[in-house]
C-alpha cells in the first residue's frame, strides 16, 4: 500500500509533480503529518481559457466578444468552458450552424474543435488515481470539429428547453467529502458570480471518470442547494444516440484542465486524434479531467457561506421542512417511549431535548460497538434530556430524508469519512465529533488523524457556526486488526469516551451554551485525546457575540507509539 505521508519534518514541502496536480502541503508535528491537497491550478495554456456566462451577456460584452472573436474565451474561469448550439446524435457531436442557431455565421466559424481526453496516464499524472485500478468510462466522449455542421436535421433534431447543460467533474467525486470540497464549493462561487435567471435554466450532470461510480443521494442533496432544475443525471446520458438528435443551446463543462498538445505525457493516439479533428486551426481545445472546480471568490468564511447557502437552497426545494423535522424528532422520542401520550398530541416539547446522531456505516470502518454506545447514552443521558439515535445515510430513500435526518440533530458522532460530510446540515451551534482512526507513527493515512490542523474532511467545518471536535483512537479501537489499513478496518470506541463527550460538551455547549471559549479550550486541553478544531463560542457569557477559535495541538502520544517505533 502506498505510503502517502512520510516523516519528514517539513512545512509546506512540495513534491515534483505538484506542479501539475495542485500542491500538496505536509503539515507536520512531532508524531504525524497531515497531508492536504490544496486545489491550485498551474498557469494554463491558451487553449482552455473558458467562461461560465450563465447570465446573458450585455450587448457591450457581446460586441467585445465579437471583436475579440471567441465567445467561449472570456472570463477568468480556467477550468470551465462552454460550447454553444451543440448537438449530440448518432456517433458524435456537432455544431448546429442551421437556421435555429443563435450565433451568427462569423462567430460560428470560430467555435473551437474540442476533444475530451480520457487517458489513464494523463489522469494519473494530474491526480493520483492509481492507473491500475481506474476503470475509465470510455463510453463518455466529446470530440467535435470546429467545422462540423450540415448535419442538423429538422426532422430529427430538437433543442432542449433548458438553455444551459452543465457537466461537473472532479477527482474522487464518488466520495461525498471530496465532491463537496472539489465540486460544490467552486461551483457555488461561480454561480454567485454568474447567477442564472432561474433554477430552470440549468440542468446538471456529473462526469464520473470511473465506470463503476454512480450518483448517490448525497450528490443530489448537495447539488440541490445550488441553482439547477433538479434533474441531475450522469454525463453518460448526453452521449450521442442513434434514435434522437438532441441539441443544446449551451453545454458547459467544469472541472477540466487544458492539455498542451505537445505535452510529452500525451499518448500518441491522442496526438493523431488532434491532428484529425483540429481542422488545422489554432482554435482547439484538448481537455482532460482535473482535480475539480477552481474557487474564484474564496473568503475566510467560505465554508460557512457555502453551508448557509446550501441549506437555504435545499430547504426551498421542499415544503414544510421545519414541520417535517419536528415530526422526525417527535418520532425519535416516541420510539423511545419519551413522549407522554400519543405522538400527535403530546404536550411535551421537543425543544427540551438534544438529539445526538451516531453515524453507522455498513461496510468498512464500521463502528462495532455502536449499539452499546446507543444503550449507554439512552440509559444514562435521557435524564439529562439527551437522546441518541443511529444515523445511516444508506437507509435514507431520498435527498430530503437525508436532509431531515441531519437537520434534526444537535450533535453528530462518527468515524472520519465521507458520511460526516452531511454534518454541514446540522443546525447552528451543532457539535461534530470526528473519530480519528488509529494510525501508527508515520503510518499511511496520517491525513485522517491529524490534530495540528483539520483533517482532510474536517476542513469543511472550518470557521462555520458548528463546533468540530476530533478524538484520536488508539490501538484499543482495533485490537488485532490494527495492522490493516485504516480505510478497511472496523473499530470500537470506549463508551466512556462518548459518555465523557456528552457530559462535558453536548450537555453544556451547543444549543443554550453555558460554556465560554475558554471553558471549551480548557476542557479540551484536559483531555489529551480530544482536539477542538473549530469552536463557535462566546468569549464571555455576558456577550452575545460568537466567534471562531481553533484549538489545535500535536497528536497525542499514544501508548502504542513506543512499539511502532520498531518498524
Ligand atoms: C469521437 O471519439 C470516440 C471515442 O474515441 C469515437 O468512438 C468516435 O468515433 C469519435 N467521433 C467522431 C465524430 O470523431
Ligand atoms: C449563415 O450562412 C448560411 C449560408 O452559408 C446562410 O444560409 C445563413 O442565413 C447564414 N446565417 C446567418 C445567421 O447569417
Ligand atoms: C465574493 O464573495 C463575497 C462574500 O465572500 C460576496 O459578498 C461577493 O459578492 C462575491 N463577489 C462576487 C463577484 O460574486
Ligand atoms: C448506430 O447506427 C450505426 C450505423 O447506422 C451503427 O453502426 C451503430 O451500431 C448504431 N449504434 C447504436 C448504439 O445503435
Ligand atoms: C500532425 O500534423 C502535423 C502537421 O500537419 C505533422 O507534422 C505531425 O507529424 C502530425 N502528428 C501526428 C502524431 O500525426
Ligand atoms: C390525543 O390523542 C388521543 C388518542 O388519539 C385522543 O383520544 C385525545 O383526544 C387527543 N387529545 C387532544 C388534546 O387532542
Ligand atoms: C433552550 O432554550 C430554550 C429557550 O431559549 C428552551 O425553550 C429550551 O428548552 C432549551 N433547550 C434545552 C435543551 O435546554
Ligand atoms: C445493532 O442492533 C441492530 C438491531 O437492533 C442489529 O441489526 C445490528 O446488527 C447491531 N449492530 C451491531 C454493529 O452490532
Ligand atoms: C470490539 O469489541 C468487542 C467486544 O469487546 C471485541 O470482541 C472485539 O474484538 C473488538 N473488536 C475490535 C476490532 O477491536
Ligand atoms: C483556563 O485555564 C487557564 C490556564 O490554566 C486559566 O487561567 C483560566 O482561568 C481557565 N479558564 C476557565 C474559564 O476556566
Automatic annotation (TrEMBL):
Top-level taxon of origin: Eukaryota
Cited InterPro entries: Glycosyltransferase_61
Transmembrane segments: 21-41
Keywords: Membrane, Transmembrane, Transmembrane helix
Name listed for the protein in its UniProt record: Uncharacterized protein
Organism: Discostella pseudostelligera
